[in-house]
Amino acid sequence: MSFNVYLLSILFSGVFLIITLGLVRKKHLKEQYSLMWILVAALMFLVSLNPSVVETAARWLDVKYAPSMLFLFGLVFAFVLTLHLTVVVSRLSEKVVHLTQEVALLRHEVYRHDPGNREGSASGEQPAI
């Protein structure tokens, strides 16, 4: 078997699948995202093993140049992923603001009931809550 782009894509998708499973096993990737990446890696592996799937799908969608369909799907996936991550970051940012406000209110209550802690805050120490 000669070394060509199909063999390279099979190797890349296999390595990507192994890295994804390793990240899940070490708990560096949350389960809610791991399923999506495992599916993407499996799909890449299947398409790499059988490139005629891309040509068949391109004929169904009346795409004249089959590799451009892969580019289009990759671009759409990147846009959807970016939108999803933006929503997640927005929610997390809102939670951080809410938690910061709660901590400030709790510190204010602690200072009000225990004036001794004010001296600790003036020296840079964090008061015990």
TrEMBL record:
Keywords: Membrane, Transmembrane, Transmembrane helix
Annotated source species: Neomoorella humiferrea
Organism domain of life: Bacteria
Transmembrane segments: 6-24, 36-53, 65-89
Protein's UniProt keywords contain Transmembrane helix: yes
A Pfam family hit: DUF2304
Protein name, per record: DUF2304 domain-containing protein
